[in-house]
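Q: Could you fold this chain for me?
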Amino acid sequence: MTAPPLGFRLWLRTALLAASALLPAAASAADKAPLPIVFVPGNGDSAAVWMTTIWRFESNGYPADRLQAIDFRHPLAADRYDVPQPGHSTVGEETQQLAAAVAAVEKRLHASKVILIAHSRGGNIVRNYLKNAGGAAHAAIAILCGTPNHGVLVSDTVLVGSEFNGAAPFLRDLNAGPQEVVPGVRFMTVRSDGNDKYAQPDGRFLGLPALATGIGSEGPALNGASNVVVAHADHRETGFGREAFAQMYRFITGHEPRTRDVLPEKTVTLDGKVSAFEAGMPTNIGVAGAVVEVYKVSSETGERIGNALLRRVTGEDGQWGPLKLEPKAHYEFILAVPGFPVTHIYRSSFPRSSRYVDLRPQLLSKEDRDAGAVVYISRPRGYFDLGRDHILLDGAPPPEIAPGVPSISTARIGLPAEPQRTVTAVFNREHIAVRIWPIKDDQVSVAEFTW
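A: Sure. Below is the predicted structure, expressed as structure tokens.
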């Protein structure tokens, strides 16, 4: 074989040297990339609850592709932590799903470890994954927000076998030993100073008003963890509030966030999943054949402006988007899932893009069926507190919201079906104008607050 010309050999040598010089820089850049964060929702929730927290991380420069919220197929806990139950999930089932999600993130991003941030029941699953399913090899940091780490009660007679009972085998295993954390993983817990409905000394928020729970506001804290308190936070705000975010960001990065606010984007693209209910319980399983329509609406009246921006029938994965929207406009999402009421979901503006705008139909009660029209308000990332918040629905506080420890995230009013009119929902600075729709036509309105 004839040797390549000298000129070619010199060119090849130069090219190889240049390429090799780039390798350390590329490796260095990969080493400096922040660890992926996997956000884990709590009991009955979906990935969508983490939307605003993800926005806050993005607003502080955290790469969007390294921020991943996950869903559990059946997010409600089974009555006994290890016994399968229709429409619910055991600890083991959700632990397997978490392990698969972490493995997928590591593979996609070529990462050896992740950061796990969990709310409420999600923290139970994270702790079980780390201690009993090999997860400690895959996680550098675990942040547990409002997680009932010592149970919502400690009892040998109530909630026997529940993952939320500090006397049951599941939590006794997790909390065994002088250190309640897993070696090799940095732990932080975030709790309230007394406003968390699931960390109360009496059982009235569990439907057991005469029962002493044996749990106080310090219940979510763990021996061996960095335990922080967010003043006045309700159960959900321990994970999704501005101050909770600041605590997370500081623990992960070692410095204060530049902002606790969400910085707007010039263009916004939304996507998400349609899910429904199984055995009367919420699922995060995509629904095929659901019809989704989206309209721009007046922020003052809720009336539609122009034609539908989107009309789509979902496929097997239940995805309804993507859709580009104006970042300062208000929108109506119409969701028609076979077998459920047609749900008109009114939303205020979306300052940033999100793939976690999930849609689920509103279930109706017997009282709803007796009304002419019904309007719901929903706050997925917090509870309503009349002593702390300014809350109005059609000009008055909803009667279902009681003073004291915040304990509900939805409320409703029944109204005459005629005349069809605008109802305004207010939560502090967020105002949503809603149009009413007749119950006789199997339609219902929901004002869903972002904040």
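A (continued): The first strand starts at residue 37 and ends at 40.
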